UniProtKB/TrEMBL annotation:
The gene is ytwF. This is Rhodanese domain-containing protein. It holds the Pfam family Rhodanese. InterPro entries: GlpE_sulfurtransferase, Rhodanese-like_dom, Rhodanese-like_dom_sf. Residues 32-116 form the Rhodanese domain.
């Protein structure tokens, strides 16, 4: 049993540490840093209910095919409904050399402007 726990801890240490950003921090960051790109990874029907203004919509399943068209000099902040799918996308992009952050709590915690 101890061996299993040690293995889990070793794996946790190997996992990439993705920066988490709160919605209010993202609102400020977008105003200050022109290299920030918000990427909404939700599905089309979810985005149809509203998304963050100026966000780029790339559904999670399209991220692997889309990263070749993205600029590695930008800082990508990934967003979904609650933060789980965007963390998967952020981890994938981080592993491919992108500067990324995940918005904590996703759109459920976003209280600023959205566009339809």
């Amino acid at each position: 049993m101890i061996k299993l726990e040690e293995t889990r801890i070793e794996r946790m240490n190997e996992m990439p540490q993705i920066n988490e950003i709160l919605p209010n921090e993202l609102q400020q960051l977008v105003k200050e840093d022109k290299n920030v790109v918000i990427v909404d990874v939700r599905e089309d029907d979810e985005v149809a209910q509203g998304m963050i203004k100026d966000a780029k919509h790339i559904p999670l399943h399209k991220i692997p095919h889309s990263i070749n068209n993205l600029d590695k000099d930008k800082h990508y902040v990934l967003v979904c409904r609650s933060g789980g799918r965007s963390m998967k996308a952020a981890t994938f992009m981080d592993e491919h050399g992108f500067k990324v952050s995940n918005m904590t709590g996703g759109m459920l915690n976003w209280d600023d402007e959205i566009v339809l």
